[in-house]
Amino acid sequence: MGGCAVRTYIRRAVVPVIVLSVVLLTGCGVSDSDEGAAPQKSSAPEAAVDEPAQEPSEEGQTPIPGPSLGLASGHRTFSVGETDEYGENYKVTTKMSVRVLDVKYMTPAELDDAKALTLAEFDKTNEPEHGQYLTLTLMLENVGGAPARITTYGMMKWQDTNHAAQDATTLESVGGPALDRTYAPGQSVIGVLVLDVAAKGGTVSYYGTKDPSGEPAFVVTLPSE
């Protein structure tokens, strides 16, 4: 990947668009290590697509209306950084942009129907551990000048007014590209996360950072239906 700017879009399962809210908090750092990424069940070929450049928006803003497909005002940026070998002296190295394209609550049977044809026929979806599956479609793009390592597996936490923060990540997949990867400057990927939450609504936060503040890199407010 190196320093070459590559912009990629990935074919994915099409699911209905539901309006939701997303807020990006203070940017946080992400490890540049390839370890800790979620095991992937399948992947699809990536295709480069040209897209008009988006201006990064300011960080730390209040919640905004959730984006529909292609709504430029729906994306936010967050910082990616690194620490020294002792886990100290954090410094920002680049910026990532995140855009929420879709969210949908699904049953295990519906997830099976949504899976790509490349997945094995016997690979059936398990019952959700916490009670409710949802698919979260994100577009991640490196809008800075250095590579960025993004790891979502084990780093997405769900909570609401009745439930404390809990890990929402799963090994389930609907096929397509993985969001967990190293992004070269200018590279973007659209991928689908299958999350397991206790109830509809609440928020999902990304904590895959090394920022000493401990704040999430971004927070997605989920619809209640």
UniProtKB/TrEMBL annotation:
<protein>
    <recommendedName>
        <fullName>DUF4352 domain-containing protein</fullName>
    </recommendedName>
</protein>
<feature type="region of interest" description="Disordered">
    <location>
        <begin position="33"/>
        <end position="75"/>
    </location>
</feature>
<feature type="compositionally biased region" description="Acidic residues">
    <location>
        <begin position="48"/>
        <end position="58"/>
    </location>
</feature>
